[in-house]
Write a structure and sequence with these properties.
This protein is mainly α. The protein has 14 helices and two strands, in the order αβαβαααααααααααα. A two-stranded antiparallel sheet has the order 1-2. The longest helix has about 35 residues.
Length: about 280
């Protein structure tokens, strides 16, 4: 498969030359490869065989796999990069003794949002959505593609932030998991960053992060106290506000493709925003 992709990559022509052969070449790129052509809407690998003779001897089944991998390579590469970054950044450091808790909280919040963008927003929502759109013929260079990307990322971020809130202050009878599991596991979430920001005003919070955060033997009374502080400190309200902003931005992005999406699909995507961001489980 790598050989076939390499053959497609090294076969290049000017955009005008590709267009003269009936391919949808980008107007703003002087030279493009056969691999670029495979990433255009409705591309067929058999149309490229006259220009990439090395592929002619390949079995039809291999060509089919090659076509699929070539078409979705940008998404697969981005997913791989996102996974690598997530694995690298998921263990975000807590502030060291004497370190400015506010500055550390701001850094953790930014890093946690980046992890959410890569893990939940792109990998779990935006990329699958865009692959479906590409299969339906949407051009990666279109304005609609950009709007759907924004929609998927905003919904994915809001979804994960809702999950983070439920992981600390959710009702176990509704969520189906014990309250405070995220605290026992030591998850560095946006909610935890906001809680950490309160450490300067709430010494109890600072003590908790220094001594008990990430310990699987957290007592129920310790968890309950942090749940109360998460609400009283404004940490939950701050995350709720970000969820609401994300849902609103997702609606705005979706509105930008209203004329290009069938009514039933639009309604399903609109309902998806509500079901993922306002859930209680």
């Amino acid at each position: 498969m790598d050989y076939g992709l390499a053959c497609l990559q090294r076969t290049t022509m000017t955009s005008r030359a590709w267009a003269s052969h009936g391919f949808q070449a980008a107007d703003d790129v002087r030279t493009q490869s056969a691999l670029d052509m495979m990433q255009r809407p409705h591309a067929r690998i058999r149309d490229l065989l006259p220009f990439v003779p090395e592929l002619r001897s390949m079995p039809a089944s291999t060509l089919e796999r090659l076509a699929t991998e070539a078409a979705y390579m940008p998404h697969l590469r981005r997913q791989a990069a996102d996974i690598e970054a997530f694995e690298r950044d998921e263990a975000l450091p807590l502030p060291a003794p004497g370190e400015d808790a506010t500055a550390a909280a701001a850094l953790m919040r930014d890093q946690a949002l980046e992890v959410v963008l890569r893990k939940s927003a792109r990998y779990s929502v935006a990329s699958p959505l865009l692959i479906g759109a590409l299969l339906a013929g949407l051009s990666p260079a279109s304005a609609e593609h950009a709007q759907l990307t924004r929609f998927g990322e905003e919904v994915g971020i809001a979804f994960q932030l809702r999950d983070d809130v439920l992981g600390v202050v959710g009702d176990p009878a509704t969520t189906g998991k014990p309250a405070g599991d995220d605290l026992r596991e030591g998850k560095r979430t946006v909610l935890v960053a906001h809680l950490l920001d309160a450490a300067g005003d709430e010494p109890e919070v600072g003590t908790f992060f220094a001594e008990r955060f990430g310990h699987d033997d957290l007592r129920e009374d310790e968890v309950e106290r942090i749940r109360v502080l998460a609400r009283e400190s404004g940490a939950v309200d701050a995350v709720e506000a970000r969820i609401a902003e994300g849902a609103q931005r997702a609606r705005a992005a979706l509105d930008g493709v209203r004329s290009q999406v069938p009514a039933d699909a639009y309604a399903a995507l609109e309902a998806f925003i509500e079901s993922t961001t306002a859930r209680t489980f």
